[in-house]
Amino acid sequence: MNDLRYALRTLARSPGFALAAVVTLAVGIGANAAVFSVVEKVLLRPLPFEGANRLFVIRETSARQDRMGVSGPDFDDFYAQARSFDAFAATVPHFTLTWTGDGEARTVNCAGVTKDIFPALGLRPLMGRVYTPEEYHVDGVQVVISRRFWKTQLGGDPNVLGRVLHLDGTAQTVIGVMPDVPDLFPDVDVWGKIVPELEFMHWRQNHFLTVIGRLKATASPAQAAQELTAILHRAGPESRELTATVAPLKAELVGDVRTQLMIVMGAVVLVLITGSMNVTCLLLARMSARTSELAIRVTLGAGRARMLRQFVTENLLLLCLGSALGLILAGALVQLGARLDLGAVPRAHGGDSSHSQRRSRLGSYLYSRSPRSQFSAEERQDAGRTAAQLPRFGGLRSMLRGRPPRRSGLAGEKLLAGAACRARIPNRPSPDRVRAHQRLHGDGRVLQQSVGSGFRDTGRAGGCGLELRACGEVGYGDRDF
């Protein structure tokens, strides 16, 4: 606690340095936390589905066009003949319907799905049930809604099952509420049905379906692609020029955003490195301004370990302040990005910047090492030059150079007191002023050390005594150098 209190007082005496260091660290840490929260959400976090690593998107390509969807007849052939997949489903990710009968007419976002989409993704209804195979026809009057629609538009009605919604003029009964699927269908209100009886489902040239399959554990993506391509070539002359591709669902969702995010992440890491170097330079410059203080502390017997402990405490305090301000900045940046919807980054709904607490600790060792090595090499040399100008009493010169002093009697200790008071330390009143207090026995042994201000000689009957009180700004308690 003494180290921490002194570190706080030291920063309070240098508000310009403290502000510059803390703001520099906060900018670097905050930018890294904000960007990494997006990177973690988009690139590193797995999809929230059972066996997400076995979910793949199937597309068709040709010599004239790349990355097409799948036509209705091709999907039927895949579904009937493919043996590399445990589940196979098609979707139309977005279309709209008009909801009437409950106040003003409103537009609702819908996604069309086939009967195997929910088992393929491992989703189960929150309430009610999903469509049965018999309900996938044009006269079906059942509807499954999303949790988001249930909460925001229907007020979380606990009796929503059986409620009638008028969608495009058709009365449809709510039979289930599905959990939200923000990664694949972020804005879905109503889960519609892809009905095989519709005419456009029989157009082989109409490549509009997004097909998702759950690959078997014994099959590889390359084997599945070869199998689907062979099925296409057997289908007819329209499909002989087509090739099936199988891509991981997560890679399909992220797309080219991966490269862009990694570039931005690299840029903000460089900002953090640059900021860390700037703070290190500030710390080294500050060490030069503290030459007198460090010299007198060495004079009073402070060892390398004791000095290093104080430097580490001061720099960890700076790092904690910079990290706290950086996390606040990161949270503000994440919220601002979500509010402005900048870039429409997939999977970037929400974010978490708590990981930056780990990243912010990386610079602490470097910050603490730089002042220590600066003091070890230069300050001790300066202290040695100061000692060389004094009479040759071994105790003083050895102490200044970091070696155990050789006691040379009462006269030498008096000269030590005088040298300490002549050191270049600001002599201004301060509650942090310290006195180095030594009680010496007649044979030169130190009986007691404490801290105070000023110095005076004392003598007592029965032996020689000396109190040395050297002015300084060390700021530590009794017997603690």
Output the number of helix runs. 14
How many E strands?
A: 16
Mind telling me the C-alpha Rg?
37 Å
Total tally of structural domains: 3
- Physical arrangement of strands within the biggest beta sheet: 3-4-9-6-8-7
Low-confidence regions: 350-380, 386-481
Helix residue percentage: 40-55%
- What's the overall geometry? elongated
Q: What is the average of the pLDDT values?
A: 75
Structural class label: alpha+beta
User: Could you tell me how far the N terminus lies from the C terminus, measured between alpha carbons in angstroms?
Assistant: 14 Å
Largest sheet: 6 strands, mixed, barrel
- Residue share in β-strands: 15-25%
Order of helices and strands: HHEEHEEHEEHEEEEHEHHHHHHHHEEEEE
Describe this structure in words.
It is built from 14 helices and 16 strands. It has 481 residues and is α+β, with helices and mostly antiparallel strands. It has three domains: 2-45 and 256-378, no CATH class; 87-216, no CATH class; 407-481, no CATH class. The strands form three sheets. A six-stranded mixed barrel has the order 3-4-9-6-8-7. Strand 3 (85-100) and strand 4 (106-113) form a beta hairpin. The protein is elongated. The two termini are 14 Å apart. The relative contact order is 0.15. Mean pLDDT is 75; it is low at 350-380 and 386-481.
